[in-house]
Design brief:
The chain is of the alpha/beta class and 269 residues long. It is built from 9 helices and 12 strands. The strands form 3 sheets. It has a 5-stranded parallel sheet with strand order 2-1-3-4-5, with helices on both faces. A 4-stranded antiparallel sheet has the order 6-7-8-9, with no helix packed on it. It has a 3-stranded antiparallel sheet with strand order 10-12-11. Strand 3, helix 4 and strand 4 form a beta-alpha-beta unit. Helix 5 packs parallel to helix 9, helix 6 crosses helix 7 and helix 7 crosses helix 9.
């Protein structure tokens, strides 16, 4: 009997689920991406497009299979749809960020819902794309996040550098260890930073006591243009303040400069 298009799609998606949960690790030099998307056609299109770009891709439709895929092999980046059945993308992003601080996470949200974009970044996602999106724009975002996460992992696996420049920088209630890319709390606990959080905080440390505009911060850390309504920098600042300030509601270290942007206030040596 001839095979219908629907049956072909079902077989393709079933193969993706099996491959994601059981495949053996391949060339470590090729970035491995996991797509979590419940819509079969969109999942197939994404997988085929990204595979043609030289990436290694697996795809699953929900959180349960996502966990199975991660147990089989940890991806470098996860493309996570917000509107998933069962556990939504926000819940999964929180679960992932608590357990895998350096994993790259890009949220896929509805173009009409700015709340989704805000909540996604608050959960610790590195970036977001909105539907419908240009595949080339998505690929650029993926490459940008991969560069940051790969740099983060490379620094963490490299020997520690004990130079004056790399000494921890006192920031509010903790210190920023730029060499190891972590925050140090007063009781000696290492608080992990995402790749995006590190890039932003490191940029402030390179330009202390100077007001930096939202536009410049976004374009420098995310390699994308500021459109006037983009709140991603504001949300990342909020996350950093919760980690470094004694009182995040009354920030003294990472301050708002009205009409400009933000400034990191450091005592001059």
């Amino acid at each position: 009997m001839p095979v219908t298009i629907g049956e072909k799609n079902q077989r393709h998606n079933r193969d993706l689920h099996v491959n994601a949960a059981t495949h053996k690790p391949m060339n470590p030099d090729i970035p491995y991406l996991l797509v979590v998307e419940d819509e079969p056609t969109q999942r197939q299109i994404l997988t085929e497009y990204l595979s043609r770009q030289g990436l290694r891709v697996a795809a699953v439709p929900d959180g349960r299979l996502m966990r199975e895929a991660i147990a089989a092999e940890m991806p470098q980046l996860l493309l996570l749809d917000v509107g998933l059945p069962g556990e939504d993308g926000f819940a999964l992003a929180r679960w992932l960020r608590e357990r895998h601080p350096t994993l790259g996470i890009i949220m896929v949200t509805s173009a009409s819902d700015s709340v989704d974009r805000s909540v996604g970044l608050e959960t610790g996602a590195d970036d977001y794309v909105t539907k419908p999106y240009d595949p080339r724009e998505l690929l650029a975002r993926i490459k940008s996040v991969l560069r940051r996460t790969q740099a983060m992992n490379a620094h963490r696996s490299a020997p520690a550098v004990s130079t004056h420049e790399m000494r921890p920088v006192p920031l509010g209630r903790c210190s920023f260890d730029r060499g190891r890319r972590v925050l140090l709390t007063p009781d000696g606990v290492h608080e992990q930073l995402t790749a995006t959080e590190f890039d932003l905080l490191d940029l402030f440390c390179q330009h202390p006591n100077r007001p930096l505009t939202r536009e410049w911060l976004l374009e420098t850390t995310s390699q994308r243009d500021y459109d006037g309504s983009d709140r991603s920098i504001d949300l990342r600042i909020t996350r950093l303040r919760r980690k470094i300030e004694l009182d995040a509601d009354k920030p003294q270290t990472l301050r708002t400069v009205r009409g400009v942007g933000y400034m990191l206030v450091l005592d001059k040596p």
